[in-house]
Amino acid sequence: MPAASAACACADSGGVGSGGIESITDTRVTGNTVSTNAPSGSALAAAGGGSGGNGLSITISDSVFGGNVLTATTTTGTAHVQGGGFGNFGAVLTIRDTTFGGNSATASGPGSSAIGGGIWNGSDGTLALVDSSITSNALTASTAQGGGLFTAKPPTIKDTVIGNNVPDQCFGC
After folding, report:
1. Distance CA 123, CA 152 (A)
2. Distance of CA 33 to the CA centre of its chain
3. Fewer CB in 10 Å around end: N or C, the chain?
């Protein structure tokens, strides 16, 4: 590796990794862990319960994403976590009658950030939430945003509860 390059310990998709057109129905995605440790350089952990991307359509309904854990640790670089319950890396994502609860994401290092304890929706993703709940998710880092939901662009939200998340409910809503 050239001297100017930086190494990254990167990991994602602890439960379900979706790269195609999918429908997830009546499914429990619980108790998954994504953990990275970079003694030097950067550490990134993403999508504890699952992820979607590639501009494809994904519908999640009547499901539970809970108790999933992200951890990223470094002693000299930056640590970053995103999407404790689910990470949207560019899918057209519709979520109906689904619970995202009790997910957590912790980043530890000299520079640490955490975004999207329940759901992380990136700039290439589209998100619609209908009749769902995003509750009791937690982020821990020197900078943390979107304890329940972090979205890079405005989502469509209808009849959905977002509450009791730490440090806040929604960033970008």
Report:
1. 5
2. 12
3. N
Match 């379900």 to its residue by tokens.
16
Sign of the dihedral through C-alpha 17, 49, 145, 159: positive
Our CA angle for 139, 140, 146, nearest 5°, is 30
pLDDT in tens, the chain (173 residues): 333 445 678 888 888 887 666 899 999 999 999 999 998 889 999 999 999 998 889 999 999 999 999 999 999 999 999 999 999 999 999 999 999 999 999 999 999 999 999 999 999 999 999 999 999 999 999 999 999 999 999 999 999 999 999 999 999 99
Cα separation, 60 vs 98, whole angstroms: 7
